Amino acid sequence: MPNDYQTKIAELKSLLLAGQPTFWAMLKTATRSAQDFEELFVLSSLRRKAQARNLAPSNPPKEKIRLAILGGYSLYPLHELIEHLCEVENLPVELWQGDYDNYISEIMDDASGLYSFAPQVVFLLPAERRCLYPGSLTDPRPAQQAEAQRVVDSLLELARKVNEKTRAEVITTNFMLPARHDLGAFRSRTLGSDWSFRKWVNLELGLAAPAYLHICDWEFLAQRLGGLAARDERSWFESKQPCSSALLVELAREAAQLISSFKRAPKKVLVLDLDNTLWGGVVADDGLEGIELGDTSPRGEAFKAFQKYIASLKQRGVLLAVCSKNDFARAAEPFEKHPDMVLKMEDIVAFKANWEPKSENIRAMAPELNLGLDSFVFMDDNPAEIEIVRQFAPEVTTILLGPDPSDYVAQLADCRLFEPRSITDEDAGRTSQYRSDAQRKALAASVTDMAAYLESLSMEAVISEFLPVDVPRLSQLINKSNQFNLTTRRRSEAEVTAVMNDSNFIGYSVRLKDRFGDHGLISIVIGEKKDGALRIDTWLMSCRVLKRGVEELVLNELVRLAKMKNCIRLEGFFLPTPKNEMVRDFYGRMGFTLTAESETQREFELPLESWQPMPVKIKTIRHAYEPS
Amino acid sequence: MNQAEVIARLQTIFDTVFLEPVVLTPAISAKDVPEWDSLTHISLMVAVEKSFGVRFRVGEVENAKNIGEFADLIAKRRQEK
């Protein structure tokens, strides 16, 4: 490690001193692979020095995330690590740090610096020493349980208060478990032991956490690292550190991961190689009987276990695709005939087995599935294939499988690319949605008259104002929708809730069903009333339902609500991004007039006086802001 | 290891951690090095413990007034191993 590490640092230093912008790309790679506290720390100080010398990354985001960190420990140098991890991932933060062990008053006091800072994200590390049972180990269980509940409730109350005041997303750590033998086997026979008490608090806290509260699972992180390696009593006595420096790195990484998950969508498609990825051997050479898959050999078992894990990803909404250098018929055969194949043809939304470069095959999948290339993850055991995709489809995230199939599950399970913030039923149903999309397209090909086709779909829409129960799904769609998205304004769950509760705003969503299936929640609009106009803050739609009349339906509803709010015109905005070119002229197509145009914004207007509703082939079951 | 040998190895650690070169002498201390703030200090100590395979006792590092005394402390802890 040291030599490799020292070379890397030396190279970074020379890039920095020469003022080379490639410094940032290398810093990012080095930061991602850094294991040790001191390595990460040196990288962070190099970043600070680069910033002090005005060596900036090439595409800095416009705004910083306002992050407050507070808790029952010294937050120094934890804050440095979090800031570094966020900044190298192009999520610059503006930090506010609480004083050591002052978090309760910082949160309870309305006049505290926390509130004048107006954070968007609050990271709270409650003190472990306030999470213990003060009575006797032999007290009756109800008394011990009541005390544990009190600890949970007081944490939930702190989170509630800070969220209510700031609308920030709140992250709280839970509690590390002890790692010493103290009490022996008795520790699990009483809720009064630190071991049982904290486990109970952690469980209740996680299960009771409202949508705006995110658990940074310290118990899990410490367990993963190893209980003894997680703690460092000396650093507590010397400088009130919360844990060992090794765990501090993991804690900072987890916090940065959570913060980035508020702004960035998880990946949507996993593209899989076949030979030596889903089974052992080469099906074209070894034949259907010759490939290693199933319980007859350890290697076969490992491949089957990997397929089972992949199937579980599909269950939580990840789309599966295949990309293999193969003859199509040979590649498809195991899916159709092998008794130990866990994955079946119907699990795969796109199946490419041919001799074209894999980068081209994956590029071709994107429009077929109506998804951006950056939603794709490609997994292969062959470094050459990975390299081709890296070079020619750089938006795709790649995972090079290691030499041992028994490690495959761990590699995928640790990749952190498919973590849901909250699993919705709609995620689980998405593969069937995409599949019935294919059937629908077949029908469109057979029906020449578009109107007759739309009629034949028997579409039904439910339009609903923002409802508390929809908030996770609303925020999820707002944060991942890229293509049909006029303004690409991201909103956390807390921010969606704020819109919902502000009477100057209207916000509604559309759910669509047709005779092939339920599309779920597919369009979201947010409007703000201002000087007789309803300004369209957000208008987005899932591309799966393009050109079905949803656009017109949404506009009809928008006008209806605008009139209800006594507005005389709609104002629409197009904010260009690399991905939303398809809606550049959308407002024009919908009858709006272009009133102003610049590089960064196009403005449109639609007077409502003589406006006539647009014809649609969708039956509206319910309108927004009306009793259902 | 004597003091000079310890300082020689410390030099390689400092060369990695600091951007501006620092030439270590027994008399030098944190206040002489602008980059040596308390944040860098934590990182240095982790690196030193790992490199020398020692573990300082609670509170003793802050008693060392300069690099010379710090090197002596490292040598002493190494001997006890």
The structural class of chain A is: alpha/beta
Helical percent range of chain B?
40-55%
Strand content of chain B: under 5%
Count of alpha and pi helical runs of chain B:
3
CATH architecture of the largest domain in chain A: 3-Layer(aba) Sandwich
Instruction: Provide a count of the helices of chain A.
Output: 25
Please indicate the percent range of residues of chain A in DSSP E strands (runs of 2 or more). Answer: 15-25%
Could you say what the CATH architecture of chain B is?
A: Orthogonal Bundle
Q: What separation lies between the terminal Cα atoms of chain A?
A: 64 Å
Largest interface: A-B, 21 and 18 residues
CATH topology of chain B: Non-ribosomal Peptide Synthetase Peptidyl Carrier Protein, Chain A
Number of strands of chain B: 0
What would you give as the CATH superfamily of chain B? ACP-like
| Helix content bin of chain A | 40-55%
Name of the top-level CATH class of the largest domain in chain A: Alpha Beta
Q: State the low-pLDDT regions of chain B, or none.
A: none
| Structural class label of chain B | mainly alpha
Query: Radius of gyration of chain A in whole Å, from Cα?
Result: 27 Å
- Specify the oligomeric state: heterodimer
* Average of pLDDT of chain B: 91
Give a structural overview.
Chain A is of the alpha/beta class and 628 residues long. Chain A folds into 4 domains: 1-60, no CATH class; 63-263, Rossmann fold; 269-413, Rossmann fold; 447-622, Gcn5-related N-acetyltransferase (GNAT) (Aminopeptidase), CATH 3.40.630.30. Chain A has an 8-stranded mixed sheet, sandwiched between helices. Chain B has 81 residues and is mainly alpha-helical. Chain B has one domain (3-79): ACP-like (Non-ribosomal Peptide Synthetase Peptidyl Carrier Protein, Chain A, Orthogonal Bundle). Chain B has helices at 3-17, 38-52, 67-79. In chain B, helix 1 (3-17) crosses helix 2 (38-52). The model of chain B has no long low-confidence stretch (mean pLDDT 91). The interface between A and B is medium-sized, with 21 and 18 residues.
